[in-house]
Design goal:
alpha+beta; 242 residues; 6 helices; 9-stranded mixed β-sheet; 2 domains; single chain
Length: 242
């Protein structure tokens, strides 16, 4: 494949519906995936950007969804997916590089982060992929793990938190790091607080939630772990553990 175009979904409609149906819903567990209506609302509000990778024939090969927090200047790569017929062919890597470059120029963010499953916490699934391969995919492209007992907040009423997750860094503003292996804590904690308020309606009062926010408030910054870190040394979260 020679040409890969990145196309932005400008507004809710048939294009977004097709991307959600074909490239998002089949490849993410329902409890990890925002509803189509929530993504559409974000697109309308200008806080969510949906980018599609197309080949020279206009076929949709993959998609990325990003959510921007203007208050703390952190961009979340919420979802990145590639059509199974085009995996292992470089589409995912090119799409990831393109969206990170685009968002770094567009927003000048403190950080671009993403959520992935802990490679030791979730088993490979024929529909949703292999967490170990996904971890290696991001690691090969320079991602580092934020040393936090991370979990995904409950995305909506009736949904559950997703334990056994990692928050990874895809881009950091060099002026807002706290050293060669630490991210400045303030924007990371601000991002987490905003995420909880948006999804769960307020800051967590349970032990695990408090432990996560406390770890993101270290005055020395949040430690960044290389992708070569042994899996057993990666941070973990669990209900009731603080």
């Amino acid at each position: 494949m020679n040409e890969l175009r990145i196309v932005r979904i400008e507004s809710p409609g048939a294009g977004l519906d097709e991307v959600y149906r074909d490239l998002l819903a089949p490849f993410f567990p329902p409890h990890e995936l925002d509803s189509r209506e929530d993504i559409a609302a974000g697109v309308t509000a200008g806080t969510t950007e949906v980018l599609v990778a197309e080949d020279e024939r206009g076929r949709r090969l993959g998609a990325a969804v990003g959510d921007w927090d203007e208050d703390v200047r952190v961009q979340l790569l919420s979802y990145l997916a590639v059509d199974p017929a085009h995996r292992s062919g470089g589409v995912g890597g090119r799409l990831l590089a393109a969206v990170v470059e685009r968002w770094a120029e567009q927003y000048r963010p403190c950080a671009i982060v993403a959520e992935i499953e802990h490679p030791a916490e979730a088993a490979a699934n024929p529909e949703w992929g292999d967490p170990k391969r996904r971890f290696d995919f991001y690691g090969r492209r320079g991602a580092r793990v934020l040393d936090l007992p991370y979990f995904q907040p409950a995305l909506r009423d009736g949904a559950e938190r997703v334990w056994g997750m990692l928050l990874i860094s895809l881009h950091l503003d060099p002026q807002l790091t706290a050293g060669p292996d630490r991210a400045a804590a303030e924007p990371i904690r601000g991002f987490l607080e905003g995420y909880f308020r948006l999804t769960e309606g307020g800051l967590p009062e349970d032990a695990a939630g408090k432990a996560l926010l406390a770890a993101a408030a270290d005055p020395e910054g949040v430690r960044l772990l290389p992708a070569t870190t042994p899996i057993e040394r990666l941070p973990r979260s669990a209900p009731g553990v603080g």
